[in-house]
């Protein structure tokens, strides 16, 4: 009697036949070539291993620091063999894995013989006892592993497993797995290289943000969406002073701090793009966000995460809700004009600020501003003193401040701050000494002076220093 063959069985045989021999490898190479990301390569590799090896379970595994973990498996879930996905595997615990890593040697293990009778760990021809014991534990028949070698190093493993009715893996199956692993390795190397090229083309090397090209493309795509588009143009007040006084390495750190502020804004505005355009110029492109929300996020983010060394971010916003239909180039230009106006207004306000002349009122304002700044500062004496100096200098209408440490009668600057956007204006300097620390606080010539203000400054310095320790 001829056994009945179902349509599903015929389809499975055709699929298996299609992925066998030279034609199978050619089709596998084509499918891997179509993968555009590492995730796609990993998923495709597991699917190919399941088909080409006629496996009950196949997986693409990553090996790092002699530890293996499963990245993807086919089928997506199998309660009988899910154990393979629940843990990581150390080479020190699995001899077959150790040989695969160190000698790039494939392995095969069998929990039954060719007649279907169970084997015991250690039996001749059964393979590594640890792998055999694992097969017996889950009721599987045979397993294999083949190394994925990328750029001369073992990157991972192709793993496959057959159930009791699937037969044993043969030397031909191991050879198939090794060729497939080589094809997968080539695909991994390709997508890794493509990612490196994308990184070089699209990312700013100093900050890791997108570059001008990406920002331009993001703006063009956003405008095509028909939704409200906002562009925020930013620059850094005080970068030149930091470069001149503290060095360009500190200036680079300052630019990275600005990038961190921009990333935090992006987190609060889904779908937005932050970029460094060059020098101290940054931008944010948003789509589908109301301009009021964008303005609120920028304000709160810059307040929550102040820049070090007394630097600050000036920014201006332009929105298609105001401009109407406009090109990306002109929207950038409008945001840049808005940013320039804000920067100039801030500088004029600093220079023309005249604190209240009453010393008692001025002292009260100094205490309020200084205490708030100390509380919000990061831990440590220097951040707390910098925050105090910046806040009290601004309250007193000054333009610059400094934190110094005294050693052997010599005071060395630890940090300086201020915003010389329009050039420094005449100011008075009050020195506050507490132990080894010297804080220079700038004040407008019009600021109220006297014991009340001086006492307030000394008290705040003591709080900043003693509280930090």
UniProtKB/TrEMBL annotation:
SUPFAM superfamilies named among the record's database cross-references: GAF domain-like, Nucleotide cyclase
Residue ranges constituting the GGDEF domain according to the UniProt record: 227-356
GO CC terms: plasma membrane
Pfam families listed in its UniProt record: GAF, GGDEF
CDD domains on file: GGDEF
GO biological process, one term: negative regulation of bacterial-type flagellum-dependent cell motility
Cross-referenced SMART domains: GAF (SM00065), GGDEF (SM00267)
GO molecular function: diguanylate cyclase activity
UniProt xrefs under PROSITE patterns: GGDEF
Gene3D superfamilies, per the entry: 3.30.450.40, 3.30.70.270
PANTHER family given in the database record: DIGUANYLATE CYCLASE DGCC-RELATED, REGULATORY COMPONENTS OF SENSORY TRANSDUCTION SYSTEM
The protein's name in its UniProt record: GGDEF domain-containing protein
Organism: Cellulomonas gelida
